Amino acid sequence: MTRLEAVRAAVNNVQFNRFRFWLQLFFFALLVYGGYLGVELGKSLPTFACGYNAEGRGGMCYLMPLQHQMAWSWQKLFSVAGLTVLTGFLTFYLWFIALNKGWCGFVCPVGTIQDWMTSIRRKTGIRYSRYTWGQFKGLALIKYVLLALLFIIPLGIGGGWFNKDLKSPFCMICPGRTIIPMFAGDFSYLTIDFSSKINMIMTVLGLTVTGLFFVGAFIKKRFFCFYCPMGAFHYLLSKPALLRLRKDGSKCTRCGDCYRVCDQEIKDIADDVNRKEIMTDDCTLCLKCVASCPENGALKATFAGIPIFESTEQGFIKRMHKGTPDGK
Amino acid sequence: MENETSKIIPIQPAPYSRSRQAGEAQTMLDHIVDDFQDNPQSMHYFYDLFRQVYCHGEEVKHEGKLVGTTCIHAPEELIYAFGATPMRLCNGSYHYDQKGADFMPAKSCSLVKATLGMLNADKVIPKIGKPDLIVNPTTCDQKKKASVMMEGMGYQVYDLELPNVKESEAARVYWRRSVRQFAVRLRELTGKKLTRKNLQAAMAKTSRAQVAFRTLHNFRLKSPSLILGKDAFLVTNAYFFDDIERWTAAVEKLNEELAQREQSGFKAVQSKAPRVLFTGSPPIFPNLKLPLLIEEAGGVVVTDETCSSNRMLYDMTAVDEWMVNDMVDSLADKYLKPCTCPIFTRNDDRIRRLLDLVKSYGVDGVVYQAFAGCQVYEMEYRSVADAFNKAGIAMLYVETDYSTDDKGQLSTRIEAFLEALKNRKKHKASIV
Amino acid sequence: MTGCKSFRFAVLCGLLQTSIACADVFWLSETAPPKAAPDAMQHEHHHEMPAQSAVAAAAPAAEKKHDHDAQVSLDGEAPGKDHQPGKQVWLRSGDNIKSAQYIATANSNERLTMIDLDGGKTEFDAESVAGRLTLKTSLPKVGFYDLYLEQCKVENGKLQVQLPKAELLWASCVAKEVDEEAVAKPIINVNSPLEVVREHKPDEGCMVRLVSGDVVNFLVLSFGKPLAGIPVTMITQEGWRNTVVSDDSGRASFTVIRAYFPKWFEFKKYHTDTFIAVAEMDKNEAGALDGTPYTSAHYVATLPGKYRPSPYDYRSYAWGLGIALFVIVFGGVAIYLYRRRRLKPYQEVRVDDKA
Question: Has residue B69 been placed in a domain?
């Protein structure tokens, strides 16, 4: 066995959930507390590094400046100043291309919080909920509606149709705005702002979503990600991304193990044996499916075409089989 | 039974070992063991097991309630979790096949007839005991109709409802409910509770067995082969009735021996022996007629796609949350989704699986066994043949049953098929 | 109202034995003069248009911007244009913030000094446009800048020194390359004989705003040294005023009052009120200014500032947490009941002739 093969085998045998937990914790600390250590990754991160966490943030979620910029007056937006928008978007895109939706599955602090809530529920022994197939198909469209509004409302402000209080409409309903600053000790976003009707409505909406987030994420794995406009945005741009999820349908037995572990209940991952690029719009690229696939090479994560994590029988047995001599 | 004559002249029943039934098993086992040299040492556990159980009629001990299953779709992990022991009732004995002929039309599947014949017999071989419950998944028509017949014999039968389509979401939901209801039925039967702990232990038991099977299966990737197909079938047949932990330990031991064989460069067959994929109706001891004929004729069965071996043990369960609800649903999915049984409406999965096995096991030709009367396999022949045609793989379709009458004729066909495979192989080699 | 104010003012003056020449308080304002000054405007048009003054061109633009901001109450000060680097200040005279006159200095060739966070100095020539002293500039980068003007004249043998000062800010909620420590430190002009400095909060970044209810501390400094016993008067836009004498460390503290009581639906959380802090000092010093001798001197230093309504006026934790909790409890119960209901036996499917 060459050294490369040995490294590959070690990677493929990794205790994936544990590895992912620590990696998520690292990114959470980086994006929520990194600011205290002088970390500044810019204003164009393709993940919910919430800008309302003014002190602690180690970078900023791109949706915040994007909505800000979209709300510029059209005169300004379509002038030279519009170049700022372009450079912001390009930076965002470069960040995004590197990890694709891996930003959701590994980096996003809101996603990580949901995973923690899932662990808490698991400890309490309460069962999870799943959508029915009909619900799944219907609700999956919400993220696109939110994405469209995220552009339309700020553009409408710039065009003078909407009140300025509506700026950053998505931020106002995003659970990241209320929750992430709390991790840095700022509870001020848990308030209703009565200063105007729009502020009141938006903050009421925001806290309703926050309430739903807590209930939803407790009983449904990655509850919010299913509705996240950032996820929809990612998917629309994912064509040239470097990190990819690939499937070799000829090796698939359609056993559905990958679907079983999928937080997002994506059926295609198990049922579709024709598509090679198997990442769907709901996918968070958490790669749990790869870790739970017992067929050698049926699912793999590649980076710029090079396989970095591949499903193997051996790895599967190591990870999935509690109580067996190999699996502990 | 007791008639007038036996009342007057008491007939001493002959010991089982001298019965025709035992003879059938003995003959098959002798062929399996004695016709070949270099049988693995660790295979003797299985030879002895079959000799004791099938030839001497010795008892196999079990724990808790005994739950008979007529198909691989009955989740054995659930049965183990309730402290009961599953036993696969599918039978391969020609003796029972004849006994069971009373229940079924003339042209019916030998396997179903043999199963019914066995259940209706006074002495059931393998001798484990009377099942406290028979789980009969509603698969093919013959098995479905067997339900009432088994009930008529005085067994408690539970129809485990299986959908006819496995791709749809409705089927998945329906099947999950079926499995949950089955768990409830098992609770009634055993009076025990399904807990996280005992289900996890049961799943660990099965998966350890599966890991052992997969390891064995992986050794068969090696060319020339380290182990013959007839031995592999015998191993998986033993899984039907043997104590699972003892079975696993024996397979693990066999795997160790195969690992040694691999290191020492051992060859169980000649290098040019055609490698055969066995598919279709399941070979079950003592009906290992066809695989044995292949290997006696110089071929080697390197892998299979049958419910007495590969399909039974290959697919493993993944669980995300080790809680009862998720574990049971995961089991349900595993028993439905990857199944390549021909009873379902579509069967793209079987063809894909076959092609994958051909590719990964370096298969030269395929032998497709269909029991006369097993309509679903007969009907699926066409589509499978088409697929292999397209892929340029030779396939031999054999329609047969449990009788040994066609042995001579089959032997000729198989020899001719293997010869053709060899020539093809030579031809290919010369081109390269 | 007016009577009362002047009465109190008189008392204060008597107590402190100072003579605050209220009409003579000079301060720098960021609010553009109102449009309604037809004479001045026309005058400006007639005379300044051919001159192509940059300032003249800029002034209407600023006014336009002002009108566009419909949320701003026009009778008060303009809200801070803190998000923009472009700044324009005017010199005003008078202690009534709403009606203080826009004036020019007697000798308009005096210079304005701007000191930035690093202590760098920039000098500007004060321009007089249509009888109003104004300065238009663009701040080079995000942060605070202090702008100083010094104006002296001798009246009745007394030197009157006006030291108006303005704290200009370019803030950005997205810029993080700001040196937070530097922002927290106030800028001090060591060349100024009298200066009022607003003490910054230790965590004061660019985005921190003074709100009603806050305690604001002013430091009275002379050539960078704290000065005790100097009366500091804080005058708000609505006419409230209070005088505190600086303590040994030169500090005078005020609690910012709440002076904004609109109806609920008219409430604007970005409503901005202006205040000015005035420090006055008499000194017995003799000398001559431009040949005119004097025997004593009177110094007036001013610093304008802005404050907003307190978030406690419009923000409610009770409602916020209440709504979130309600959703959590309601949602939790709904899910629990739904799960319970799912355990009930399956019921018949209804079929009627519409089905």
Answer: yes
